[in-house]
Specification:
This protein has 107 residues and is mostly beta strands. It is built from one helix and eleven strands.
């Protein structure tokens, strides 16, 4: 089941191609340009209240705040869940930003 994609300009879309928001320079925003959270340079993912939601490691492993593995992001931008099912794509951006698909519904 596809969750969505992250486009080269940082636009985040769901599986129905509806625009959910955008990520730029580590800041995640909704369609109304409201700040939802951040993905920091060290891979920490935070919500708008600066609460830690999870991490994405330099090798593309995405974990929640309880250190449970959620999935992976490969160097080609393929996003896979923990069952190795393809759930999304990211192209032309920092591959760490693709982790936003795992957390967008929590932001």
């Amino acid at each position: 089941m596809l969750l969505g994609k992250v486009e080269p300009d940082g636009t985040v879309r769901n599986a129905n191609n509806m625009r959910l928001g955008k990520i730029f320079d580590g800041t995640i925003r909704d369609n109304n340009n409201m700040r939802l959270g951040t993905i920091e340079k060290d891979g920490t993912i935070r919500d708008r209240n600066n609460m830690r939601l999870g991490t994405v490691s330099s090798d593309g492993i995405v974990r929640d705040n309880n250190n449970m593995r959620l999935g992976t992001i490969s160097s080609d931008g393929t996003i896979r869940d923990n069952n190795n099912m393809r759930i999304g794509t990211a192209s032309g951006i920092n591959s760490r930003y693709a982790a936003v698909l795992f957390f967008f519904n929590l932001l």
